[in-house]
Amino acid sequence: MNIRKSLDNILKKYGYDLIYIRRDKRFKCSCYSERSSGQTSSSCNKCFGTGYKVAIEKIRSRRKIAPLTESLVRAGRNYEIGNVSGTAFLYFIQHDVKPKKGDILLEVEWKNGVPFKIKEKHFISIADPKHGAGGRIEFYQVYVKYDTERPGDENALT
Ligand SMILES: [Zn+2]
Question: Could you say which DSSP state residue 150 is in?
């Protein structure tokens, strides 16, 4: 059984498009120097508050509501009880996306194939690679942490 192909078929039928914000940690965003005590500039309209240069990618995925206990255990200290508020999501992401902890997933509204409104913003807290029988990575299970949108985010998207 080819798991990569199976997931590809599932996502074609049942998945939807979302935005993957990939940080390039080699390049700091111009807002980086303004950071104090780990806080990024909330008004930065380039980096979604990550503090780094970012690339905006369109990916296909689907999600399910993650069992809360599992999410808590897996995410360890990244989750605080107050942030979970009953719902945690688990995304299924294809192997070639190579998701990384700290990158961002955006649930968006699309208009003519272009994202024009952010509905939800999630930081990746765990990107768990699932290996097949041959040892290669077949797909990722990605656990996320909800984040409130920053004022500059819509600008960063468009
Ligand atoms: Zn920035």
Answer: P
Burial class (CB in 10 A: 0-12, 13-18, 19+), 129: middle
Q: CATH assignment of 3-23+55-156? A: 2.40.10
Distance 31 CA to ligand 1 centre (A): 4
CA atoms of 124 and 104, how far apart (whole Å): 6
Domain residue limits, the chain: 3-23+55-156
The DSSP code sequence of 81-96 is: HHHHTT--EEEEEEGG
pLDDT tens by residue, 116-144: 899 999 999 999 999 998 899 999 999 99
Distance from Cα 132 to the centre of ligand 1, integer Å: 38
pTM of the model: 0.85
pLDDT value for 101: 95
Report CA(43)–ligand 1 centroid distance (Å): 8
Please give the distance, rounded to the nearest whole angstrom, from the Cα atom of residue 139 to the centre of ligand 1. Answer: 30
In terms of DSSP H, where are the helices of the chain? 3-14, 68-75, 81-84, 153-157
**What single-letter DSSP state applies at residue 45?**
S
